[in-house]
């Protein structure tokens, strides 16, 4: 019986010492998980940067489109009509009379006259 106890004690000591030299699989697994999470964070950061760049481009494009629409929404009065408005203005007609004769709104007539006076 004593021999069995001594033999079991020797075996336990050997197994205990052997466990120190055994590779720890949990540490390698932990390293893999850390690497994966770091890669995930990096990819997420890159995606967020790309999204911000796209949003800025869309915002700039949107602002440019609004400017273009504002320019195009301004009525275009052809040159002959402008010359007619200027000629009527030189003859001494007021804005209301000019707008009736030229079929333009009073604001358009005022714009044409102000452009003429600024020249």
The average pLDDT score comes to: 85
What is the C-alpha radius of gyration, as a whole number of Å? 43 Å
Main β sheet profile: none
What global shape is seen?
rod-shaped
The end-to-end distance, rounded to whole angstroms, is: 122 Å
Overall structural class, as computed from helix and strand content, comes to mainly alpha
The tally of beta strands, per DSSP, is: 0
Helix content: over 70%
Using brief descriptors, characterize the structure shown.
0% strand; single chain; 119 residues; rod-shaped; mainly alpha; 5 helices
Structure notes:
By secondary structure, this protein is mostly helical. Helices cover 86% and strands 0% of the residues. It contains five helices and no strands. It has helices at 2-21, 25-73, 79-90, 95-102, 106-118. α3 runs antiparallel to α4 and α3 packs across α5. The longest helix is centred in the middle third of the chain and has 49 residues, at 25-73. The termini are far apart. The model has no long low-confidence stretch (mean pLDDT 85).
